[in-house]
Amino acid sequence: MPYRRLPKTDAARLKALKTVIDNNEIYTVKNRFIDWKTLNEVQQVYQKLLTANQQYNMCYNAQIRNSGKIDKLQRNAEMYISHFIQVLYLAMQRGEIKESNKKLYSLSEGDYSLPNIKTYDGILKSGINIIKGEKARIKNGGRPIYNPTISMVATHYDIFKEAYDKHKMLQDKTNKSFEILKVIRPDVDRVLLDLWNQIEKHFEEEPLEIKLDECRKFGIVYYYRSTEKIKVE
Length: 233
Known about the structure:
Layout: E1 3-4, H1 10-21, H2 36-93, H3 120-139, H4 150-202, H5 208-217, E2 222-223, H6 226-232
Antiparallel strand pairs: 1-2
């Protein structure tokens, strides 16, 4: 025997609710078999879920659009920071800059490996350390590094940080809107369960196929088990 299953997605939940809302038969005095309390709840949860779902999709799409931009800015910032550190290391190895200056950049003496700048946090941490370190060394009388200059590094760092801050803001909005959806879904499922029980109760005396067809008109979705599918075919 086919079995019903509550919707698993918000789109399916909205479709099931909308099917009932748009079905004029249930609003007539003669044919109405769903109580008004349930019908009012259907209207309410449909509007709440629709609004929350639209808000989530809007936030999510904005986040995705911004992600494409931030990837390029991340690569630029990573490249400039990496090139600057490599030039700094070469100057130290040639004796033009004392290795003791590494502490100004929060770099370890004796270690000429690049810090981790493959992640957002790595770029933000290393970038600000390099910018502050170079400014401090120049303030102490050191000659500035060229190609790239620290101003070029700072420019690409600032552009990336601004985009990253926006990305985090969009990400937070998406997460908050998703949490709202998670809170709404159990209430929607509760209303759907009550609604479907009333619909099936109304048609319970009908032959099975007629009952299934009538219930489907009101949005109930039935599934056949694999063995039943073979028989139907």
